[in-house]
Amino acid sequence: MSDRIGAPGTGLSRREFLAATGGVGTAALAGCQAPTSQANTRPNQSSTTPNSTAPDLPLTSPPEVVNVDEQGGKVTLKTQPAIHEAHPLESMGGPVKLPRVWAFQADDRAPSVPGPIIRTTEGEDMEVTLDNTDGMRSHTVHFHGVRKAWKDDGVPTTTGITVDPGETHTYTIPANVPGTHYYHCHFQTHRHIDMGMYGIFRVDPEGYEEADKEYFMTVKDWDSRLNRMMAGEDVTYSPRNRNPDVFTVNGKVAPRTLHPEDGSPMIVEQGDTVRVHWVNGGYMSHPLHIHNHRFQRVEKDGGVIPEAARYDMDVCNVAPAERHTVEFTADADPGIYLMHCHKVSHVMNGNFYPGGMLSGVVYKEVMNTDIFKQLMQYAGYEQ
């Protein structure tokens, strides 16, 4: 477990968080079902097969940052069938659960959805081994952004390379385009991304200077019928008739997104410079809005935006596979401010509002307040 609190990046340490909150904590209640959209009816438990429960499968963990430079420029990715709890409690329209995902697992770490945040430095070559020796399906890995050899593109149709069950394959990925990028399985892409096989790839430029607080956030839309069908439920799904009903930030829906360890709150202190790397891992565009803060977009798909072209904004539309890096100063009245998709139906758990694709900017200065304690209760934070 990481010692950092909040979204993946450079949040507070656990000790700093507990000191700021005064040790706030509540007990959590486990949940078990995904929400139902107005257009779809979920079958009841009696219509599922025994495979739908799959008690032997692991639960996913939050995505971790994997610094490949510290591992000699090498990382191994395995795929692991898992159960993904986007929000395990009954609060705010929950529980929300994807009973089957295919999670990426880096080295000996826990499987996660999104996959691990793979981080390296400009000028380094990275060896990524896709280990499918225990797999049941064929997979590949495709990295956006960087320029690589044809055979390392990760597309089976055009390279002839597929990593079948029982096989491993090593890709050489040069870190020659600095910025925030995206990786995903490119075998039967329309299903494998929707089963959870996607993540962030970050190449720090030479001499990179981090902001006071720096966070990574992947947003995604899901049609839970696919995940339920793969778990053995009696439900039909077609990518031609996709109807998303779950909307996540780093794999979680609100209020679980505000959980300091399982979720992705952006924890700041007054005067911090804050840098947020947004990645869209889904198939719909999401206009992301931060309350009470004006930010500037400084990178797009790894390309640096010249200062003369930057301007203050508070909504940034992130299309599928796009990466936007924004910066702002934590100069508002210390409080708790939402970060959410402004397609308001995406900020729901089933028919319950608010929920879904919503997180927040949380000032350390207000972590000892009653309203913060209430939010932690909704999120299920347990000290």
TrEMBL record:
Residues 31-65 are annotated as: Disordered. Gene3D superfamilies: Cupredoxins - blue copper proteins. GO terms for molecular function: metal ion binding; oxidoreductase activity. Residues 34-54 have a biased composition (Polar residues). Keywords: Copper, Metal-binding, Oxidoreductase. Residues 112-206, 243-350 form the Plastocyanin-like domain. CDD domains: CuRO_D2_2dMcoN_like. InterPro entries: Cu-oxidase-like_N (IPR011707), Cu-oxidase_C (IPR011706), Cu-oxidase_fam (IPR045087), Cupredoxin (IPR008972), TAT_signal (IPR006311). This is Multicopper oxidase domain-containing protein.
